Amino acid sequence: MKYFLAYLLVFSIYLGNAQSIDQSRYQNPIKVACIGNSITYGYIIKNRPLNSYPTQLGRMLGDGWEVRNFGVNGR
């Protein structure tokens, strides 16, 4: 419990200092690389290219972002 409270405190401080990215300052799309294992890859998800979480993240962020899925199944 002690470690959880310490983690929560650090995370709260981080969120308090977080700033959003102003897309108008960039000429090209901002690139995001999603790396991970089978969850990132989208293992067993129906229509993986449309329903994996990196694809959904790209839809939520919009046109000013380029989100790519570098998940590897079984890692």
Structure commentary:
This protein is an alpha+beta fold and 75 residues long. 44% of the residues lie in helices and 19% in strands. The chain is built from 4 helices and 2 strands, in the order H-E-H-H-H-E. It has a two-stranded parallel sheet with strand order 1-2. It is flat.
- The general outline is flat
CA radius of gyration is 16 Å
Total number of helices: 4
pLDDT under 50 segments (min length 5)? Answer: none
Write the H/E string, N to C.
HEHHHE
Structural class: alpha+beta
Distance between the ends: 30 Å
Physical arrangement of strands within the biggest beta sheet: 1-2
Q: How much helix, percentage-wise, in residues?
A: 40-55%
Number of strands: 2
Strand portion: 15-25%
Q: How many strands, what sense, and barrel or not for the largest sheet? A: 2 strands, parallel
Mean pLDDT: 86
List the helices and strands and how they pair.
Blueprint: H1 2-17, E1 30-36, H2 38-41, H3 48-51, H4 53-61, E2 65-71
Parallel strand pairs: 1-2
What's this, in brief?
The protein is an alpha+beta fold and about 80 residues long. The chain has helices at about 1-15, 40, 50, 55-60, and strands at about 30-35, 65-70. The chain has a two-stranded parallel ribbon with strand order 1-2.
Using brief descriptors, characterize the structure shown:
2 strands, 19% strand, 75 residues, alpha+beta
